[in-house]
């Protein structure tokens, strides 16, 4: 640890074993900069981001009432600091070529109980805003040798305009090609915004900066999830919810938490997803547009389908359709909701019914209908989603005992899957591969199985602290 401290610019730090023993056995909290040094050391050794809070060291004198054992929710003055610290550690891992999973995901019920009351209250920026001078001093101790951090300065509306445009560019790239190729750039941009938030800005600019931070954090989380960095993804979703709430945008906070719920369904933990969706839907508040509420319903329905709750799933999808149709468009949708359109609604319905078909094969026919609707509407700018639709369609056809049509759509997915950097497409392909086993005696299907084996990397082992629900090793 002393060597790490010297690298980070603290050569005077001299910690011995007796002092470490007091931290462990007596619960003593070391003084700054020891927690930062330990976080950087564990980050490098474990190959995943470890923050001060992860180690059980909170900021002195800042523990608020109602906080959970892991420090959630953070007090307002901590959000920008956590954002900067976490992205800096993430960038350090990227720079050194370290990628790890290691940590366990927090349970949905734990996140929900910790954040419920906080999310349902409204921050008042004038009185509840970060203490920017203290925050700047707090984060300034981190030396670039220990973690990556961009130097930032106060910004004006022109710079924030450019930041908001950059979010749209990153979002479009993610939709087209998956999260792997641009993740580091998004994390770097988010780190820089965290530095900007350490300065005082007029309230209207501060709100916009928090909005940029929330959007970038959601993207960083989604891209991390897309490449299998599950604990890192969950942390970014929590950061996004905090940033959105600090900016006074409760619907954005709810959508960020819904991403964490989607992640849980993908990892085979639908019960955790339902806990998170309950918080996301209630926390989004009455100002959430009908289209936003429709999107939240589709995620809840997918979780219900994963548990075989067909009646509940159909009821929830019916609510989603009603909400979607009721949105007259007289109020412009926020930028983060503009990609949830008719094709996305059909795509999520196809996924929910295809998932339910594992429990009720009759649902496969409805999955095919929605997948066809989605595919007819999709363009090349949403390649990853198109691949998901192909896989949903092929899987539903296999379940419906239609291997010929399944083979057609499976091959369409294979043609495109190499053009993305999305591990989630591989996970869905593995699930489809499992369904081909029943038809292995057919020559075309046997050939398809071999093509899938060649296209897929080796199956992940316990990534993100949980196995993929329903996936099979190839």
TrEMBL record:
Give the span(s) annotated as Disordered. Answer: 455-474
The name this protein carries in UniProt is: Regulatory protein
What is the native source organism of this protein? Answer: Streptomyces albireticuli
């Amino acid at each position: 640890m002393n060597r790490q401290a010297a690298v980070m610019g603290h050569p005077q730090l001299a910690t011995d074993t007796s002092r470490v023993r007091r931290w462990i056995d007596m619960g003593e909290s070391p003084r700054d900069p020891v927690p930062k040094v330990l976080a950087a050391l564990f980050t490098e050794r474990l190959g995943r981001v470890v923050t001060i809070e992860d180690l059980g060291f909170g900021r002195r004198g800042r523990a608020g009432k109602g906080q959970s054992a892991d420090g959630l929710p953070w007090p307002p003055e901590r959000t920008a600091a956590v954002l900067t610290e976490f992205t800096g550690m993430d960038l350090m891992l990227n720079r050194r070529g370290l990628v790890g999973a290691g940590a366990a995901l927090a349970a949905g019920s734990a996140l929900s109980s910790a954040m419920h009351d906080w999310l349902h209250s409204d921050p008042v920026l004038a009185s509840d805003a970060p203490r920017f001078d203290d925050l700047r001093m707090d984060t300034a101790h981190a030396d670039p040798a220990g973690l990556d951090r961009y130097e930032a300065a106060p910004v004006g509306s022109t710079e924030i305009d450019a930041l908001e445009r950059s979010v749209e560019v990153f979002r479009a790239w993610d939709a087209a090609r998956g999260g792997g190729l641009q993740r580091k750039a998004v994390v770097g941009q988010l780190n820089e915004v965290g530095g900007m938030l350490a300065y005082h800005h007029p309230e209207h600019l501060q709100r916009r900066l928090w909005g940029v931070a929330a959007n970038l954090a959601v993207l960083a989380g989604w891209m991390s999830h897309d490449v299998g960095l599950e604990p890192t993804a969950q942390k970014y979703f929590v950061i996004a919810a905090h940033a959105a709430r600090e900016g006074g945008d409760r619907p954005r906070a709810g959508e960020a938490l819904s991403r964490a719920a989607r992640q849980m369904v993908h990892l085979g933990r639908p019960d955790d997803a339902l806990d998170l969706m309950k918080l996301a839907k209630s926390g989004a508040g009455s100002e959430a547009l009908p289209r936003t509420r429709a999107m939240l319903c589709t995620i809840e329905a997918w979780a219900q389908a994963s548990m075989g709750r067909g009646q509940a799933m159909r009821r929830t999808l019916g609510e989603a359709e009603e909400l979607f149709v009721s949105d007259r468009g007289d109020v412009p949708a926020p930028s983060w909701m503009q990609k949830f359109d008719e094709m996305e609604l059909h795509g999520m319905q196809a996924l929910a019914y295809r998932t339910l078909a594992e429990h009720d094969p009759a649902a496969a026919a409805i999955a095919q209908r929605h997948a066809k609707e989605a595919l007819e509407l999709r363009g090349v700018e949403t390649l990853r989603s198109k691949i998901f639709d192909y896989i949903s369609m092929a899987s539903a056809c296999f379940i419906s005992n239609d291997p010929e049509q399944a083979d057609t759509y499976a091959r369409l997915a294979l043609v495109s899957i190499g053009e993305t950097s999305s591990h989630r497409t591989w996970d869905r392909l593995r699930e489809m591969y499992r369904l081909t086993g029943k038809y292995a005696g057919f020559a075309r299907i046997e050939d398809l199985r071999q093509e899938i084996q060649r296209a897929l990397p080796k199956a992940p082992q316990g990534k993100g602290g949980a196995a993929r629900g329903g996936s099979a090793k190839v």
